[in-house]
Amino acid sequence: MFDTRPCCEEEDEGFWGTGAEGASLSLGEVTGLAEVPCAESLMLYEKEELALGGWLPVPEDDGRRKSVLKNLIDFGACNQPAMCQAKLHGYCEEVEHHEPLDRRTREFSALARMLEGRAFRSMRREIFGLWRDVVDDVKVQAKLDKIEQENVKLKVKLKKFVNFLAREPRI
Question: How sure is the predictor about 46, in pLDDT bands with cuts at 50, 70 and 90?
């Protein structure tokens, strides 16, 4: 147990007490200071001063190596020219002689891709149009079914009303 009594004279000695006999240590004995400083005399020490005095904890060396970032890209393979750009996109089946395509062949290839894209967009537009038509037809059919059910209900009510009037004696 540490003695935490203040060193100021105005403090009451009876308040702090002495604790168990022989079990208390004074702060001066623990820290090696002859006199315990008062709260008013506490000072702020810079980190450098604490380091020079040996009061800072020593950083632990965990013995691990620092992480290293390795380059996993093979730039030699990336720098080779592509033989057929269309092959990358799946338009070219196989390059026969691995020769660069001439301008005319590239133009025809681009034209074929453009026409294929146009046909695909046209087909997609038609499919969406048909889908909208089917959805509209289903909505119209649902409305017709509802109206037919209402007609059947009205016919039944009208028939009941006519039968009621037929059974009623005339006045």
Answer: confident
